[in-house]
């Protein structure tokens, strides 16, 4: 769903506005994140986590109906030879903006072969594709890693000088449980909200970066900073310091995601754009699946080892971003190879 909406927005937006409007959509992602944390603080303590999942699925059901009202990309319709549908979409946009359609006809060669996996590995895009896959996997690994690590840090109360939480067992005997599991307190939810707000904190700077420095350099800088802040989590600090580090990490990983979303949608032509985004999204899911084993399993055995692994992956992604062969800043969307 996220990939599809971004492709449609990318294909509708003019070149000069893409670097500004696409990052602004992060505001709605933030609103959803804050909503689910707020719901969890109310629903989980009262009627349990299962009801949280049921309530959280309602917007997805509504979206199934809402998709019917989203217009198909005019670029896609032209590439498939459906110029009538493309014209209808463009005329609707013109009416909405109270402007007239330019004179002329839509003319574009119909692509007989579209969305072939081999096109992603074509000589022109081979290096770009492989590096993009590495970056997507690493960014997802870091993004979901810090989200899960935030919960783990709060649950284990890993603040400098804090004592392990005591877990009551049968017979009113107190013992140190190796898992240190406990229900989130209101202050824990507050910390989660503060760190989540960080996802929008760097948005203005990120927009300036991707529009003036370019997609590649901006992404390499934010990935390098992400690696640094992962290591800073190991510093002995107060609760406020921990919240500050989590805030910055959430801001940086969100900026990474925004930039790679924009770059991937811009670098591929219309014929393979959806496939390129789809395969990148698959690598993203792999990173998301691996993250819990590091944030919740390896972190239990070696806190510093987990942080070093997250940091190393971010450094690799920063190098991959800096050495990407194509810069898409100010580049018109390509219709064909």
UniProtKB/TrEMBL annotation:
Pfam families associated with the record: MFS_1, Sugar_tr
InterPro entries (UniProt xref): MFS (IPR011701), MFS_dom (IPR020846), MFS_sugar_transport-like (IPR005828), MFS_trans_sf (IPR036259)
Keyword Transmembrane helix: yes
Source organism, top-level taxon: Eukaryota
One MF term in the entry's GO annotations: transmembrane transporter activity
Domain Major facilitator superfamily (MFS) profile: residue ranges: 1-329
Subcellular location: Membrane
Any single Gene Ontology cellular-component annotation: membrane
Gene3D superfamilies given in the database record: MFS general substrate transporter like domains (1.20.1250.20)
Its membrane topology: Multi-pass membrane protein
Spans traversing the lipid bilayer: 20-44, 51-70, 130-154, 301-324
Keywords, sorted A to Z: Membrane, Transmembrane, Transmembrane helix, Transport
Family statement: Belongs to the major facilitator superfamily.
Full protein name: SVOP like
UniProt source species: Prolemur simus (Greater bamboo lemur)
Organism phylogeny: Eukaryota, Metazoa, Chordata, Craniata, Vertebrata
